[in-house]
Amino acid sequence: GGFYINASGAVSFDQCTIRNNWANRDGGGGYTASSTVSFTNCLFSGNTQTGPSSTGIRGTALCSSGGTVLLRDCTLELNVGTPGSGGWTGGAFSGLSGTHTLKNCLIRYNDCTYGDGVYVVNGKVLIDNCTVFRNRGYGVHQAGGTCIVSNSIVWANYDDIAGTVGLNY
Predict the structure, then answer these.
(1) Fewer CB in a 10 Å sphere around the end CB: N or C, the chain?
(2) CB–CB of 69/34 below 8 Å?
(3) pLDDT digits (tens, 9 = 90+) for 21-63
(4) Whole-model pTM?
């Protein structure tokens, strides 16, 4: 994909565009593992993931396994996971483990197998003041771990919420 960050601390992306990248496994736009990474005012768009996943989980825009990821004021849109490639998919974001926060983000028009907006496998994901809109499948899908959605709009997805997502109004 666009980048791979492993076992790193305090990596920051500010006002970046991560666009039109491709991965045959996890993280079309990028993959983080056991790292502390923040994205501010970034655009993830047009990224693609195809083929079998090494983890069984894909994050077509961004996949994170462990560590801490913060997405603030970011847009994740038009990311595509190849249908029928198996496993579960987060068109915008997949959290395999770790603690992740999406704050003031727009997540729209992603198209993947499951969990098209945000897919939570394990760990903890907080979605705060975000709009998750018109993703082809689920807006937010929690298969494990903890996912809390607060002060957000999750609307007009094929299915808005799947799993036991905590909602704070």
Answers:
(1) C
(2) no
(3) 988 877 889 999 999 999 999 999 999 887 665 555 567 888 8
(4) 0.92
